[in-house]
Amino acid sequence: QVQLQESGSGLVKPSETLSLTCTVSGDSINSYYCSWIRQPAGKGLEWIGRIYTGGRTNYNPSLKSRVTMSVDTSKNQFSLKLSSVTAADTAVYYCVGRYCDSTTCFDNWFDPWGQGILVTVSS
Amino acid sequence: EIVLTQSPATLSLSPGERATLSCRASQSVSSYLAWYQQKPGQAPRLLIYDASNRATGIPARFSGGGSETEFTLSISSLEPEDFAVYYCQQRSNWPLTFGGGTKVEIK
What is the rounded distance in angstroms from the CA atom of residue B18 to the CA atom of residue B77? Predict the structure, then answer.
């Protein structure tokens, strides 16, 4: 069973860069993909973007100018960087895999989810 | 960007009652709609994908329907563990978007 675990700094200063890592366990990430989704406290979900292990990415246009996603297959890890952060970027950040049933994997249906990591932007 | 509007914002029901949640898309998403359940302090969980297919391990009391711009999630008989927030999500167009959520609370 695939599990995802986010890690990184929980406190980032305004104007600096948020950096998070998602470690995948229970399977090789070859031919895998990871989406990043965030959720401000008490609010809804926002899709940030996704990356395949081959390096192909898709980003939300609202964040595209500040987002960089990457993959390290040797470590079974995906990474997210968000630059020039403000208080509006304070949220729980989730890394999420694509849902697979017994025979098929479905791009852009989200499961499993990591437990999430709270990132606070504050000086 | 496709906007998903969920209604009602809050649904107050008793255990054993039927819940019907709505998700309306600003343009057609065909059947590319999913539903998620989120409990306090937890990550969301996929319930329904492609509008009407239950994800692995999801109880049969959960069902989804609809197409194009109008979708529903029904819970036939609410169990205590079903009181949570529910989100819809589309994958028809970039960027992927979520609805604002419906909270199902105990009456």
Answer: 5
Question: For A99, which of B1, B43, B49 is closest by C-beta distance?
Answer: B49
Q: Which residue of A has its CA nearest to B40?
A: A42
* pLDDT band (50, 70, 90) for residue A47: very high
Question: Among residues B93, B80, B82, which one has the least CA distance to residue B35?
Answer: B82
For A28, the token pair is: 């090789």
B34 touches chain A (CB under 8 A): yes
Tokens of A66: 């500040």
Q: Do B43 and A94 touch (CB under 8 A)?
A: yes
- Going by pLDDT thresholds of 50, 70 and 90, the confidence category of residue A86 is very high
pLDDT of residue A87: 97
